[in-house]
Amino acid sequence: TAWAKLNGIPTLVDPKKRNFLNFKDVTLFKPNFKELQEGTNQALKKGDFDKLFDVVKELHQKYQQQYLLVTLSELGVFVSDGTKYTVIPALIRDIADVSGAGDTVISIASLCLACKMSIEFTAALANMGGGLVCERLGVVPIEKEKLLQEALHVLV
Question: Residue 50 catalytic?
Answer without folding.
Answer: no
